[in-house]
Each structure stands twice: as C-alpha cells, then as structure tokens.
Specification:
Helices cover 37% and strands 24% of the residues. With 464 residues, the chain is of the alpha/beta class. It folds into 2 domains: 164 residues, Rossmann fold; 290 residues, L-fucose Isomerase, Chain A, domain 3. The strands form 3 sheets. The chain has a 6-stranded antiparallel β-barrel with strand order 11-12-17-16-15-18. Helix 8 packs across helix 16 and helix 11 packs across helix 12.
Length: 464
C-alpha cells in the first residue's frame, strides 16, 4: 500500500494590503483552510508554510516546506502577489510545482457585490507568476476551479500522486540477475544515462551470488512462508517443488533487502543448473516482490523494472506485463508473461502450480497463474527515444472477464480493450516507439501519469 502523498502549500499575498487593508489577511484564512481541507479529504498529507509577501519571506517559507520533505509544492494566491518577489526562489527550487488557481466564491456574476473583488482576484497574481516561471524555463502545472469543487481537489491529488511516483523513480538501486536477454534491444539504455539524469544505479550479478543468502534461510522461515502461501494461493503442486521455489525466493528477498534494491530484473536463461541451492527459477518471488512494492521486469529489463516499482509505490497494484497477441475480431489485446504477475491484480485467489520449464536444465519452478480483475486500467510504457530522451506512453483500457478455455488455468492472462480501434492503438503504440515490456495499473491514472512524465522530463503520450 503506497503512502499518502505529502504536499506543501505556499500562500502568496501582497505586502501593500497589510498596510492599506489590515484585516484582509485574516479574512482570507478560511479560504486557505478550505483549500487545506479539500486536499486532505483526497487523502493527501498537507503542510502549510507561513504566508509570504516579499522575497525574504518566500525564501523562508520555501525552506520550511523543503524541510517538511514534501512531494509537491502547491502555490495558493490569497490575493494578488507580484511575481518578482517569489519567482527567483521558486525557479531555483527542485520541487515540482502545482499552481492552485482557485478562489473562495463560486459565483461572481452580474449581481456581485464589487467588494468581493478583494477576496477573489488572486488569479491574476497566478498569471503573473506562471508567466515568469515559463520565462525561466521552470515547469509547473495548474489546477483551476472553485476551491470547493471536489473535482479540482481530485486533480490536485492525482498530480500529487504523480509527483510521489516521480520521486520514487529517482535514485533507485536496481538489481539485474544474469545478462540482458541476448538480442533484445528495445528497453536497453546506457546505465550512465540513468545515473546522471535520475540518480539510478544498476548492479548486475550471477545467480551464484545469491547462494550465501539462500543458505542463510532457516527451515523455520521456509515453512512459515509455505504456510502463508497456502492461505494466499490455490496450491496445486508437489511439496518439493514448492519448497525449492520458496527457499530460493527467500534468499533472493534477503539479497534485495540487504542491498537496498527498489527493483530488479532477471534473465530466466541465467538459471541453468538443476543443482541445489539454485536449482530452479524464482518466478514466485518475482510476483511477491511486486506485491511488496519492489519493481520487476523480465529478461534483464531494468528500465521497466524501475518503472513498475515507482508506479507500485506511488499508485499501488502495479504489475509487469506484455502484449502478446491481438484479437482482431474482438477488438482486444491479450496480455501475459511466463510466470510473473503482481497478485494484487488477480481476479481471485491465484493458482500456484508446477510449470514445465524446458528452456534450461533447471528444475520446474512453482509459478502463479491468474486472470486479471475486470474493469478499467491504465497501460503504461517507458520508451527510450532518440537523443537520450524518453516517451511515456499510457492508455486507458478495459480489462475483460476471464476466458473460457479449460487450459487457460495455467496462464497469466488478461484481455484488454483500448478505448478505440485496436488497429489504430497498435499503430500509434509502435509509431511512438513503445517497447514490448509494459506496466499495468488498475484504475484511471492518466492525470497522474501526465504529471509523472512532466516532472521527470519524459514526453507524455496518451494513446486514445
């Protein structure tokens, strides 16, 4: 379960009013309180800086919010505020900015009392500041509407969750087990690029480097995990198969925990021995890791593994997946993968079974199979582009109910419907350079993903 995003409100005001209209500042406090309450009702943690009018106050208020360790800076104009008092420190800050373009009165119609202008004119202060931030090359986002409009506050919350996920993307430690799958190029990027731009570090190991962690797993810990599996899953496999997969998985879990890794990827071809203690492939732990908020992607793809981890910790319930087959007649796409799925997206209790594994001499692994929960979901891909740039592709889709063939019980599976023609969807997806590895998040996360992309410097590409 992801934590609640933490936003910091910076209230902007005009020093002139403290001299000429000394009661106005206090009269605007209920407006500020209503904004705070609206954000809190959307599940956000809110810190509020002291009201600022001049440069020194803005610098102090911004320092206060930075010390609060916020995910997103929210500006709120209580009145007009000259941009040159605040733009310098805001442009220099590394915090993502959301400008809350709201006023206390919903109705400012033809019969309005002209005195209400004093309480509702902050929007031209926002325009002043937004124009200057734009000229400084500083990215920001805007949410406009009445302060009591729940949809405005939801938009703020969605942007805040995108900011939280962007923060989770940065400075990750990602583990790769084995080499990248031979010849698979679409998701590969220079590790120096990930390090210099995002602070992401990659460590690559051989499966044999897990041996010490595997041998440290006690019989008691192994049995306890097996008992938990019997509660979580439908068990349909030999106990010996279950035992070896759990022991390897707990060793991998310990290695990830000890190394402080936030995501990992493995090449199943690297697990090529039938001998203990690494005699199988840890597909089961890949599934459990995603459920714990550790990112994962297959075949050595650390880029998508990091994406899955950031979205899981920012949004929750995120799984790695691939588009395998088109259903032209049904206007659907079939999603699957060999043995990796986040159990949080399952339609029911996943089935744990022994999967035939003919690809290396390793013994058959314990693997989960399930259908995805039907309903709305967002399909996401991070696609490297020319010039060391990235496109973030995302699309609202519908997950259909499960299929009917009896042999499907051994598969990770989902049929999804794009909002439009599946042919046009696939054309757009590949025209934008989408890779064959994706993330899927139940629900509509398009606003959050747009914010996530902008904050990180990705090009947001929504596919309809």
């Amino acid at each position: 379960m992801p934590r609640n995003p933490h936003v910091g409100i910076l209230p902007l005001y005009l020093e002139l009013y403290d001299r000429s209209l000394p009661t106005l500042r206090a009269e605007q406090q209920p407006f500020l309180a209503q904004a705070v309450q609206g954000l809190e009702q959307q599940g956000l943690q809110v810190s509020v800086a002291p009201v600022a009018c001049v440069r020194e106050e803005f610098a102090a208020s911004l320092r206060h919010l930075e010390e609060c360790d916020i995910d997103l800076l929210v500006t709120l104009h209580l009145a007009y505020s000259p941009s040159l008092e605040s733009v310098g420190c805001l442009a220099a800050s590394t915090l993502p900015i959301l400008m809350l373009d709201v006023t206390p009165d919903e109705d400012f119609g033809l019969d309005v009392d002209p005195l209400r202008l004093l309480y509702n004119h902050g929007i031209h202060g926002l325009q002043d500041l937004a124009s200057m931030l734009k000229r400084h090359g500083r990215d920001y986002q805007v949410a406009a509407g009445h302060v009591g409009d729940e949809s405005v506050m939801k938009r703020c919350a969605d942007i805040a969750r995108g900011a939280q996920a962007a923060r989770e993307w940065k400075n990750q430690r990602i583990l790769r087990i084995g080499e990248v799958f031979h010849g698979m190029g679409d998701f590969q990027v220079e590790e120096t690029l990930l390090a210099s731009r995002f602070g992401i570090t990659i460590q690559q190991i051989k499966p044999s480097e897990l041996i010490e962690s595997i041998l440290s797993v006690s019989p008691e810990s192994n049995e306890e995990e097996i008992l938990l599996d019997r509660q979580r899953y439908q068990i349909d496999l030999d106990p010996a198969v279950h035992d070896r997969s759990v022991r390897l998985g707990l060793g991998l879990r310990d290695y990830l925990d000890q190394g402080g890794f936030t995501a990992f990827s493995m090449n199943f071809n690297a697990f090529d021995s039938p001998d203990e203690p690494i005699e199988t492939v840890p597909f089961l732990e890949c599934c459990k890791a995603m459920e714990r908020g550790v990112g994962y992607a297959g075949e050595g793809d650390v880029l998508t593994a990091g994406l899955v981890g950031a979205l899981e910790r920012g949004f929750g319930r995120t799984t790695f997946t691939e588009i395998f087959c088109p259903d032209w007649k049904g206007n659907r796409l079939f999603l699957s993968h060999m043995g990796e799925v986040n159990p949080e997206v399952a339609a029911g209790k996943p089935r744990l079974y022994e999967k035939e594994f003919p690809f290396t001499p390793a013994k058959n692994p314990a693997t989960l199979a399930c259908a995805f929960q039907p309903g709305a979901a967002t399909l996401v891909n991070l696609a490297p582009d020319a010039g060391n740039q990235f496109n973030l592709l995302y699309s609202l889709v519908t997950i259909d109910p499960d299929g009917t063939h009896p042999h499907l019980k051994d598969w990770i599976r989902a049929w999804i419907r794009p909002s439009g023609d599946v042919r046009r969807f696939l054309e757009s997806y590949s025209q934008l350079g989408g890779t064959h590895h994706l993330a899927l998040v139940p629900g509509d996360w398009r606003t959050s993903l747009g914010a996530f992309a902008r904050i990180l410097g990705f090009t947001p590409c929504e596919i309809g």
